Amino acid sequence: MIHGRRESSCGVDHSLPISFWAKMASACRIRRRCLTSARSLARTTVIMILSIMLFSLVFYCLLRDKSADDAMLVKSLQEIGPWPLDDRTLFINDSIAKNVRRQARIFCWMTSRQTSLPKLLAVNSTWAQRCDAHVFVMTSAGRPLPPGSLDLGVPDGRNNLVAKTKRMMTWIYKNVVDKYDWFLKADDDTYVVMENLRFLLMHFDPKATVYIGHPFKYGPGYNSGGAGYVLSKSAIKRLVLEGFQGQKVCNSSLTDEDMFVGQCMRALNVSMYESRDRFRRDTFLPMSPQKSFMGPRITDITEYEWVRIPLGPACCSQLLISMHYVTPEMMYLLEFALYRMAVYGRISPPELFRRFFTNDTLDTRRPYINRHQQGPNQVQNQAQNS
To answer: Of the chain's two ends, which shows fewer C-beta atoms within 10 Å, N or C?
Structure first.
């Protein structure tokens, strides 16, 4: 056996066999690697903890700033207060609109959440006051609900919209279905011109199964939830009694509520009606007024369009009904422009709009795809002949 006197790298000096020193050196190398790995892991852990703390701080600051901005906006909206319903300083003759309102009773319901108070205040103070009744569907989350809100026990959030919609449709059927003719579903960032909606609905019978809005072509076809869609009382009854309770033909695995309702309507043989005017211009807009006029287009929306909405004034019908992605500030500007501002010398007699929605426009006997593939010359010729 060969012996040698050596000093190990671990600081131990003994006269031991060389094989022993080889094993010691290997152990020391392993220990050094372990220590290095431990130090690296510790550094990585510290960096991760610091990163999470920094991210949380930035998120908190952003959330606090947003909360502060929302609080300031809410304060401003509250200072504006409700818009006067009877202002004798306005020179407006709305007798025809009031008469139409008596002929089409509309119940409006909007999906919302506790964090959307500025939107709720804006909708409440503007277009929703022209519904015959309206309610915001949201979850209390342990806090008091704003006035005009309804908690159906379904958590807020996009993933729960189908469940919330089913619960709300059932609530409507059990409580108010025979009190109104039509039921409008919209978002809390949708602006609706109720007079134009009522004029369109006058072409339909609420006792028939009617489903109308802005059509998207995905799957069997459905109406955009953001632009708002309308169901007749008969369609509500069939949806609940046959779609939810009877044959249960509705596909609850879908995650988008508007697509879910469209699938239900198709399974129940409820027709999707055309909502464009005789010039083939849209009345329900799934985009904001800014993007509808100036772009850029929203890719997620244009991919679903039957016909691409042109930019500029041709995007929208003169009797525009709804717009999506409308901020609270924009809602007040729209309200002022539509209901408190006038252009001297310009009058639109109601007889000009008698054939604004033609029989061809409202026809459901031909599929959407056939109607929407007409060229511009055909559309112009039909408009002139109407």
So the answer is: N
Residue in 355, 72, 367 with CA at minimum distance from that of residue 217: 367
CA 173, 177, 178, 182 torsion-angle sign: negative
**Number of other CB atoms surrounding residue 86 within 10 Å:** 5
Q: Cα–Cα distance between 90 and 186 in angstroms, integer?
A: 29
Average pLDDT, the chain: 78
Distance CA 320, CA 189 (A): 16
Tell me the pLDDT band of 363, cut-offs 50, 70 and 90: low
User: What number of CA atoms fall less than 13 Å from residue 276's CA on the CB side?
Assistant: 21
The region that residue 209 occupies, defined by phi over 0 for left and psi between -120 and 50 for alpha, beta otherwise, is: beta
Element (H, E) at 92: none
Q: Is the pTM of this model over 0.85?
A: no
Residues near 199 by beta carbon (within 8 Å), at least 6 away in sequence: 100, 319, 353, 356
Nearest to 262 by CA among 299, 345, 314, 254: 254
Q: What is the pLDDT of residues 204-220, one digit of tens each?
A: 999 999 999 998 887 77
What single-letter amino acid sits at 331? M
pLDDT at 29: 63
Greatest mean pLDDT among 70-79, 129-138, 263-272:
129-138
Q: Alpha-carbon distance 160 to 72, whole Å?
A: 30
Please identify which residue in the block is written with the tokens 């008969």: 234
- CA–CA separation, 120 vs 36, rounded Å? 58
Residue 91 near residue 346, CB atoms below 8 Å? no
Give the CA angle between residues 240, 189, 265 to the nearest 5°: 25
